[in-house]
Design a protein that fits this description.
single chain, about 40% strand, mainly beta, five-stranded antiparallel sheet, globular
Length: about 80
Amino acid sequence: MSTQWHDPAKTPLPPVGTRILVYCADLVGEPWQYGLEAGVVTYDEGDGPVAETRHSLHYPGDPGWWWAFAPTLPDA
């Protein structure tokens, strides 16, 4: 099963608290923002839902990143 990636400019982020994957294509010139990271949807006062990863906040209007629903792990 392949991962379906969403352009945040076209597909709104899921509800706050949802775990997601974030892929950043490094169009903003920060090398530490490039690649795939786990994230969560949080709320930034004044901007609304944003994707928060260990390294950055990704805003829906920012270019060069996409989100996908994080896979769920089976119960142990």
